[in-house]
């Protein structure tokens, strides 16, 4: 019996193990057999409108890659910084994870939750979740994993026109998914309770009545959850096609876990700056926020009063019964202009907004918007996010038999007071808890200078470096670029850095462009890795299944600019030194040294044959020999020594002279042809001038240039053709899908109502017949009694008449 137990334990351990221990071989990640096994591009390399990312990292020691050929998931254990600090090793062979039900769609993106237990497989119109545990396959050494479809009633492959725009795991829950779809609905799904029906639904209505600007303002594109900062952790940021950004706050998954200190901080802030204000609107908004906090976190009031020492707190299902969330926005920018529309729209960008990224960097919340024209718009929140409700618009709740909330749905409208326009001279303290969305402070506009493409524009995907949040990776058709932020308004002010106005630095990491025009991106996977020692890498996979690993430097990117002007060398002196060729020494070129003659008396009075004269002559001869004769010997030696070198220089000059003469000879040979071509060009020019004169005489040739209004109207038409037409088509498709679902539900409800009405009619007829029968019986009894009474009266009358 003990043997059997040991055998079962050994078998279970083999199923749970990632790779066979006796066959593991650690190889460089770029040389892993998974990436070297394919012989051609993926069969779905050109499918799908947006970029694909088939790589995922669990932020520990496992890398996941979706194999589009075998329709399976490859789990690759990796080692960072071994054996060298900059190396990345991978275990071979990898573990194969197969879904128990193959997805009926092309996978464009995979994403893993924070504890590494489930992985998303996302397509254009459907998605499913693959749990990363299962049973061993009987056919091969793979693991069969349980796979379920999410929201099959809403997102279905082929039969629905509702497209999945973005899917993200919630940062404070391991089982909640946020999905933004083309029908302008944001949904939260809880995988632990119900994978078919959403837990929360928010129907987005950004266009105010009478203020509709264009079709792109009602088409969502992307969204992002907020970070770990005050009310940002309860916020959802939504980007629309025209570049406008809206927020939903508060949005909390049922059962999500938050830090105790964070919830207490915003609870205290609402009491301090909200309830004590003299403005009734501020008091009302803060009171709603306090009520929501106390109901969502029921132990908050007692534990704050008792000063409990807790680490986390769990949110319970709750919603205000008489109010829905307000769609705050569009977020405007801090400016000096008075025009609201200019403050909301900001600078003109090419194309439409395609992707969005939220980053929390110390004390700053940075919002990055990517445009199809190749620009990145970087903004920072100038104030704090606060919760806002539309009172009088109750949500729709789904409850169980105990009246516990299971789900909710609400219509989120943008009110007239949600347009945030702030001037530079306006203090932000006056807008605390007034229900106004925070304005945006423009940090920079980065033009990636992408190659030209069709009218659809470029698709850009953005990632954050896990080690340094100031660095943003942008993945596009031209390759990968790195954008590093050097100035952050609140963080730089706190740290004391004087780098105001310093523009972000852009570094090309990888170029995949072959010319001026670009083809679809050859990358099908991208992930950023980092370890605890400060090393960072990026890993990418091409459509040809080629893997590359690039080490990214981080230590010197945020250093301040400092130029040493004191020890700067004199450029004029360097030029003077380099101009003199080092053929003969400078000492010889400067000539013999100046000789200081000895101080003697007048030489005319000294005889040459005298002792004094001879001594003077000897002294002069000695000085002449020491200076001029030795200088002549040095010159002779230098000339003799540099003779071969000078000969080589002269030969080189002669060779260059010969080459120049050959080139001149070739030019002289080509000169007649050039003269003939010039003559033909002059004749062609004269012919074109004559044709131009004839064309100018044609009717309609003297058209006036377009006026400013006509040019603006033409640009609006081009904008409508290139951007808004797609938005209208997607809106029509979403409305068609919603109408189909509504008609199906109406047909089902109508049949049920007809059955109910028929049953009710039958029941009513039976009751009416019974009532009629009982009333007839009563009437017959009353008639019998009345007839007897009449007979008694008649007999009494007859008796009286007979007695008379």
Automatic annotation (TrEMBL):
BP GO annotations: mRNA export from nucleus; protein import into nucleus; ribosomal large subunit export from nucleus; ribosomal small subunit export from nucleus
Cell location: Nucleus, Nuclear pore complex
Main location: nucleus
InterPro entries (alphabetical): Nucleoporin_Nup88 (IPR019321), NUP88/NUP82 (IPR037700), WD40_repeat_dom_sf (IPR036322)
GO terms under cellular component: nuclear pore
Keywords, comma-separated and alphabetical: mRNA transport, Nuclear pore complex, Nucleus, Protein transport, Translocation, Transport
Keyword Nucleus in record: yes
Name the record gives this protein: Nucleoporin
Organism the protein comes from: Parasponia andersonii (Sponia andersonii)
